[in-house]
Amino acid sequence: MDENALIQSAREGDLNAFNRLVLTYQDMAYNLAARMLSDFDAAADVTQTAFLSTYRSMDTFRGGSFKAWVMRMVANACYDELRRRKRRPTTPLEPLDEDDEEIESPAWLADGAPSPEERIEQAELEKAIQSCLNGLDSEFRAVVVMVDLQGMDYQEVSGALNRPLGTIKSRLARARLKLRDCLQHFRELLPSAFRLDHQRTV
Length: 202
Description:
Number of helices: 8
Order of helices and strands: HHHHHHHH
Oligomer: single chain
Helix content: 55-70%
CATH architecture: Orthogonal Bundle
Largest sheet: none
Mean pLDDT: 83
CATH superfamily: RNA polymerase sigma factor, region 2, helix turn helix motif
């Protein structure tokens, strides 16, 4: 059954059809929430909330990119959570494990099977990237995560965030500049080609 058929069945109340849609997008949704919130448990909760909202709102879906529509639900749930944190800031910058110890290399950042030295360097770089992402305003963070980390095209992101295409491109450009500037504080972790001062090195 293709996606359009699944969507139609889900709109008619078919929970199995909706669950198949969830399986298609749950990893992307969770990864967006994890990058936005930098917290495993909150990301899981927000993703669940977003999919519940999606299910309850299926009859309002008017076509177009279902992926973008789902990601809009996730992004909005993340914005709500970030606003709540501003009112009651209790979440640490780095995610914690069950013993309240800082997780050095979150599972959702892991990639491949590098050597121990490479794993240490990669973990430090990923922490630096996440730290710089956390420094962006939430809507700028959403744009750069969706485009640069999840590979969504501008039109999909425009639909997901309900913003004009020009706004998405402008925010992405500004977010990339802010990330580049922020990452220069961690330039010893960056490949030499990405260090702003590499051309001045004698």
